[in-house]
């Protein structure tokens, strides 16, 4: 009897020309883009974790929603995060999540997760440029600006 296994196919479809992709120049430009893409009907209801995928010129390839949780937290599977990052041939990323309460202070869990992802990214030469906490009103907290990366 012949042993069979599943065939794995990997694909990435980028339909927007690279020169037309938005360029991230600072935390404000990343926060503005992220907030503009956030679902305003749910930003005050539950926490969502997303990643902004960037090329080597800091142009945004896309934003991927990794998880949606409850009022005070959401689970992030770092293996799935890096599966998306590697599949999209991303060289840098910005972590994004919202705090429905509007509080911008990062929790200890936020800090630990950021360091865990940053450390994992170093193994693949993938830069974690920032981690932004977005409030329902559009304000944000930047780990990079606060020297926490």
Automatic annotation (TrEMBL):
Q: What name appears for this protein in its UniProt entry?
A: RadC-like JAB domain-containing protein
Kindly state a single biological-process term from the GO annotations of this entry: proteolysis
- Which InterPro entries does this entry report, sorted A to Z? MPN, RadC_JAB, UPF0758, UPF0758_CS
Please report the stretch or stretches of sequence annotated as the MPN domain: 24-149
Say which domain of life the source belongs to: Bacteria
What is an example of a GO molecular function annotated in this UniProt entry?
Answer: metal ion binding
Q: Which CDD domains match?
A: MPN_DUF2466
Q: Sorted alphabetically, which keywords does the UniProt record give?
A: Hydrolase, Metal-binding, Metalloprotease, Protease, Zinc
Q: Does the keyword Transcription regulation apply?
A: no
């Amino acid at each position: 009897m012949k042993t069979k296994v599943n065939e794995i196919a990997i694909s990435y479809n980028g339909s927007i020309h690279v020169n037309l992709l938005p360029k991230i120049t600072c935390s404000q430009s990343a926060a503005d883009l992220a907030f503009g893409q956030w679902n305003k009907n749910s930003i005050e209801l539950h926490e969502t974790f997303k990643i902004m995928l960037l090329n080597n010129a800091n142009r945004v390839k896309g934003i991927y929603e990794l998880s949606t949780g409850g009022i005070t937290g959401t689970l992030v599977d770092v293996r799935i995060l890096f599966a998306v990052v590697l599949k999209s041939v991303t060289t840098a990323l910005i972590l994004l999540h919202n705090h429905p309460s509007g509080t911008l202070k990062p929790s200890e869990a936020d800090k630990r997760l950021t360091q865990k992802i940053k450390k994992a990214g170093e193994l693949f030469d993938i830069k974690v440029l920032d981690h932004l906490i977005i409030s329902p009103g559009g304000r944000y907290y930047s780990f990079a600006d606060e020297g926490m990366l």
